[in-house]
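Researcher: I'm preparing a figure for a lab meeting and need a structural model of a single chain. I don't have an experimental structure, so a prediction will have to do for now. The sequence is pasted below. Please return the structure as tokens so I can convert it later.
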Amino acid sequence: MHILLVADGRSAITAGWLRMLRRLDIRVSLVSTFPCDPPEGADLVSVLPVAFSSLAGGQVRIKSNSAINQEEIHWKRRVIGAFRPAFLTVRAWMAPLTLRKYQSQFTSILSDLQPDMVHALRIPFEGMLASLTPKDIPLLVSIWGNDLTLHARTSPFMASHTRKALRRADGLLADAYRDERLAKQWGLREDAPTLVVPGNGGLDLKRVKEVTKGKELPFDLPADRPLVINPRGFRPGSVHQDTFFRSIPLVLEKVPQAFFICTAMQGQPEAEKWVEKLGIQDHVLLLPYLPQGQLWQVYSQSKVYVSLSSHDGTPNTFLEALACGCFPVVGDIESLREWLRDGKNGLLVDPMDPHQAADAVIQALTDEALLASARQKNFAMIKQRVDVDLVGHQVNEFLINFQ
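Model: Understood. Here is the structure written out token by token.
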């Protein structure tokens, strides 16, 4: 089987899918929507930087050994961070219009490769580009958690191209049953085959265990303080980091030794302003984007994972944190209620209420019995639903029947 994957070639999610597909002995070619080095496990066919992707930042770590390049990257991130909301508004209106520019290149690639199927790893903007796939080639589309609840509603153009992508799709992969239902409301035909599996292609639990044992991090974490990790970075309209930062002083009133680790926030003006404004410099560490292995190591040393989102499917950081033993405090949204029972194996809160968030973190940091019980339940759940071999088997069966 030969799949043409349309995805962000830099992304850890793409890397996870490539690892899983290699296990299935499936040949993969890649059209990346961001400039990237050729990833392991795929032939990089082309880079088609739709939707101003070279300016969009993104939630991945950029690799560079050059001090000059690192300084340039740091400067660009500060500028993007300062103007992110305005940029995203403009992007929602203008980016769909860039797709036409790449239509002939994409269809030419398809004509040359003749893949057995095309798989777009999310709707904006990979699925929108892949909707140009001729009808004689099956198109599989994956949905990310905020594709339909947030991005599709940001402009009439985003709504129109979302519907076009789903009407063209011959099948759908989602990481939440909610999105399976919503996709049909947005145009996916009723008889289209669907599968609900983790968006990262599953977790290699043996690899997680190996990575989190006995390796040193390139930065120091306080050994005698309970650690709370927030790895979500800035996602305007989706993840409410203002609520998170405003909850920290409330937590410190009851648990003054608590220490908060914020990855993907180093050099971000909004994070720096909140830390300075609230006077919490001694209780917060702002880190850059971390490679997946380092992030897992931080999870394994942390007690609590916090993600205060109002638009999400099943975040990969959430699954990875549970696999590493973190207790989840997350936004009370439908997709996460598919995984958690409030007060049993996690705590669900109003993602815009800092007092609720603080109370949940305090409970998690002070109730050792709850943490121990949840850790056991969550790892069993991860093993039953997220293990890469299990997910690979489900995906393989789906692809065989999908062709």
